[in-house]
Amino acid sequence: MIDRPYFLDALNGQEHISDLTMAKSTNEPLIFFSTPVRDESGTVTGLLLGSVKLEVIDRLLATLQPPTPGSDSYLVDLGGPCCPTSDIPRSCSGLAGAGGIPPGD
């Protein structure tokens, strides 16, 4: 973990939200986030790290959007890969290792 961008960015005082990343340990699509924790003088004294499974985001989106025949939602990052949230397991697994979803933890 100490070599991951989300860890290093927080350690250097920056917030970080990753692109969609395949977890090395579980092979699940995740989004990692981090932020530094600072004391009163602004010195980084700790890190807040976390991750969210893509399936959790999918379930959340399903509760926010009324199902409409023929409609769909997508998760898009700045690199361009799109992942239809209604078909997460199949569509995202095809992106892993093909330059679409990088491995990471």
What does this structure look like?
With 105 residues, the chain is of the alpha+beta class. It has one domain (5-104). It contains three helices and seven strands. The protein has helices at residues 5-11, 54-64, 88-95, and strands at residues 16-17, 21-23, 29-38, 44-53, 74-76, 82-84, 103-104. The strands form two sheets. Strands 1, 2, 3, 4 and 7 form a five-stranded mixed β-sheet that branches. A two-stranded antiparallel sheet has the order 5-6. The protein is elongated, with a radius of gyration of 16 Å. The relative contact order is 0.21.
SSE topology sketch:
Elements: H1 5-11, E1 16-17, E2 21-23, E3 29-38, E4 44-53, H2 54-64, E5 74-76, E6 82-84, H3 88-95, E7 103-104
Parallel strand pairs: 2-7
Antiparallel strand pairs: 1-3, 2-3, 3-4, 5-6
Mean pLDDT: 75
Radius of gyration, taken over Cα atoms and rounded to an integer in Å: 16 Å
Number of strands: 7
The DSSP helix count reads: 3
| Low-confidence blocks of residues | 93-101
Order of H and E elements: HEEEEHEEHE
- Global outline: elongated
Share of β-strand residues: 25-35%
Q: Report the structural category.
A: alpha+beta
Q: What is the first-to-last residue Cα distance?
A: 7 Å
Largest sheet, in brief, is: 5 strands, mixed
Helical residues, percent: 10-25%
Q: How many domains?
A: 1
